[in-house]
């Protein structure tokens, strides 16, 4: 499960050392749950409210609002994701804690804007609210602490809501993972590291899990929407078999090495896949670049004449290089890039997965292909 906007991949800065960290939805929900349960037992909302995170941090959160009723209390925290381009930054995380059945412990429920799991393969069973195991653990711990401190039973119903979450979820990968009706409550450590893109990599991994659980023997990992549509048409793959890899070829391949599928297709544009062909596993422009010298070397290997090499020598972008290579040598260069990219992927996987690579142009036309 991951609430990440695919468009944000293009904005990762090369140097993130001075960026401010933030708090996950799971940490905010834990703080809201703590405030609500303490108010339920004492009649007073703590403000600010402090929580303990898994790695020992003890952040404090301002309670945005609190409401107390007969047998229930509700508190809200405004999420601060720091300098990360998290789509839930500024969202209101609302938690209602109500008295539950004796001996029932902590029961979780999805409120407005929080999704429900519908497909197998995730860490939660179908039908469960999309509140990840780590946030559930943090909330259970804080409910237990408050119960011990103020004489509660700890038997409660915890309902988490995110107003506007249904619309926000449309910008995420949740629907593809079978999470319907809203966002996920995420966070392993409780801390958001700016531009770490951990949510995107998490979504890639969960996408593989869902595809495996659905019995898909062939998945396609794509760098963007154009290549995704093209490869889906090429092979007739269902949506559950499509992985939005973005720039994170390394994250995908590392996970498939320990969670293999019989067949993987890697699909993308010429520029991105030329980086994979050169051995780069992070395809973002801030981490790797199109190497015109290396591409000229590939042209030499396939026998391109001097005039083609001279034309490419002055090109600086992937599009310029393909245009300079022309109708005669462009497709052959794309084919060679596909072969080299496949070699990189096979080396990273170290066996167990059959791989083919498809290179598409900006219009979704197949330029080059390598593999079975």
Tags for this entry?
single chain; 372 residues; alpha/beta; CbiD-like; 2 domains; five-stranded mixed beta sheet; 10 helices
Mean pLDDT: 90
Going across the major beta sheet, what is the strand order?
4-5-6-9-7
Strand content: 15-25%
The best one-word shape is: elongated
Tell me the count of domains: 2
What's the total count of β strands? 16
**Structural classification:** alpha/beta
The CATH homologous superfamily of the largest domain is named: CbiD-like
First-residue to last-residue Cα separation? 31 Å
Compute the gyration radius: what is it? 24 Å
In CATH terms, what is the architecture of the largest domain? 2-Layer Sandwich
Described by strand count, sense and barrel closure, the largest sheet is: 5 strands, mixed
The CATH topology name of the largest domain reads: CbiD-like
Q: Into which percent range does the helicity of residues fall?
A: 25-40%
CATH class of the largest domain: Alpha Beta
Continuous helix count: 10
- Topology pattern, helix = H, strand = E: EHEEEEEEEHEHEEHEHEHEHHHHEE
- Unreliable runs, pLDDT <50, ≥5 residues? 4-11
Q: Briefly, what is this?
A:
With 372 residues, the protein is an alpha/beta fold.
Describe the structure.
The protein has 372 residues and is an alpha/beta fold. The protein folds into two domains: 6-192, CbiD-like (2-Layer Sandwich), CATH 3.30.2110; 216-370, no CATH class. It is 37% helix and 19% strand. The protein contains ten helices and 16 strands. It has helices at residues 25-42, 133-150, 165-169, 198-213, 225-235, 249-258, 270-277, 292-301, 306-313, 318-349; strands at 22-23, 49-50, 60-61, 65-69, 72-78, 92-99, 106-110, 116-117, 156-161, 179-180, 191-192, 218-222, 242-244, 263-269, 354-360, 366-370. It has a five-stranded mixed sheet with strand order 4-5-6-9-7. A five-stranded mixed sheet has the order 13-12-14-15-16, sandwiched between helices. Helix 1 (25-42) runs parallel beside helix 2 (133-150).
């Amino acid at each position: 499960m991951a609430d990440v906007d695919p468009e944000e991949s293009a904005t990762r800065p090369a140097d993130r050392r001075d960026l401010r960290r933030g708090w996950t939805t799971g940490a905010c929900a834990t703080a809201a749950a703590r405030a609500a349960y303490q108010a339920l037992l004492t009649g007073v909302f703590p403000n600010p409210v402090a929580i303990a995170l898994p790695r020992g941090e003890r952040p404090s959160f301002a309670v945005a609002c609190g409401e107390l009723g007969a047998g229930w209390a509700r508190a809200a925290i405004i999420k601060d994701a720091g300098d990360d381009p998290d789509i839930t930054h500024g969202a209101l995380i609302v938690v209602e804690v109500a008295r539950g059945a004796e001996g029932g412990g902590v029961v979780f429920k999805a409120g407005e804007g929080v999704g429900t799991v519908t497909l197998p393969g995730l860490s939660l069973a179908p039908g469960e609210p999309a509140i990840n195991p780590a946030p559930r653990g943090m909330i259970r711990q804080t409910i237990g602490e408050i119960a011990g401190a103020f004489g509660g039973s700890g038997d409660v119903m915890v309902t988490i809501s995110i107003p506007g979450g249904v619309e926000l979820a449309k910008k995420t990968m949740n629907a593809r993972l079978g999470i319907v009706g809203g966002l996920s409550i995420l966070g392993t450590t409780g801390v958001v590291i700016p531009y770490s893109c951990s949510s995107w990599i998490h979504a890639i991994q969960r996408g593989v899990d869902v595809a495996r659980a659905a019995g898909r023997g062939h998945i396609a990992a794509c760098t963007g929407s154009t290549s995704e549509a093209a490869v889906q048409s090429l092979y007739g793959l269902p949506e559950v078999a499509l992985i939005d890899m973005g720039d994170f070829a390394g994250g995908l391949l590392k996970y498939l090495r320990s969670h293999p599928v019989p067949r993987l297709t890697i699909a993308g544009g010429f520029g991105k896949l030329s980086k994979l062909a050169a051995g780069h596993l992070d395809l973002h422009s801030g981490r790797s670049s199109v190497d015109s010298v290396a591409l000229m070397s590939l042209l030499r290997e396939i026998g391109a004449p001097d005039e083609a090499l001279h034309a490419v020598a002055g090109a600086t972008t992937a599009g310029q290089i393909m245009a300079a290579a022309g109708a005669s040598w462009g497709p052959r260069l794309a084919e060679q890039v596909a072969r080299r990219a496949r070699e990189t992927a096979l080396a990273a996987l170290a066996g167990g997965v059959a791989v083919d690579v498809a290179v598409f142009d900006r219009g979704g036309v197949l330029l080059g292909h390598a593999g079975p």
